[in-house]
Fold this sequence. Notes:
By secondary structure, the protein is an alpha+beta fold. It has 2 domains: 1-95 and 147-165, Rossmann fold (3-Layer(aba) Sandwich); 97-141. The chain contains 5 helices and 4 strands. A 4-stranded mixed β-sheet has the order 1-2-4-3. Strand 1 (20-26), helix 1 and strand 2 form a beta-alpha-beta unit. The longest helix has 22 residues, at 120-141. It is globular and about 55 Å long. The mean pLDDT is 92.
Amino acid sequence: MDADILINDEGRVDARSASFDLVLSFQVLEHVRNVGNYLSEAHRLLHKGGWLILSTHGTWLYHPHPEDHRRWTRHGLIVEMADHGFETVNCASVLGPLAWTTLLRLTCVYHACLRLPVIGRPLANALAVTLNARAYLEDGLTPEWVTRDNACVYVILARPTEPRA
């Protein structure tokens, strides 16, 4: 079975309404111009009792691949989901702001090191191990209430609440 499901230029999936148990959307929402259309299509595809698992950015670098439009706070993302017919059952916060800044520095330094002849890659890899360990420790030290509302990434488990049109 082919797992690729194509989305046409209007943002529609060639599938019957209410034909899926689960819609997965990982790191896509921040790249969508019209969030309402995107979530409406996810809503249309889910059958009664279906689930949406979605991850998107809280704080993160601008990264246009091909476009980049928005970031959310935890509260803002939950409200956005509710505004488009989804009840958020769980919103998990991934990576707090202190660890995020370490990973941001790692990203910049890693790529700078790669430009160095001979020692660049080994140095970059050693820094990656070291700074990832530091970020792990920093995330453990960051109070839960800080990460909860100011995460780098959020993972949402939601279900449709409104009846389908």
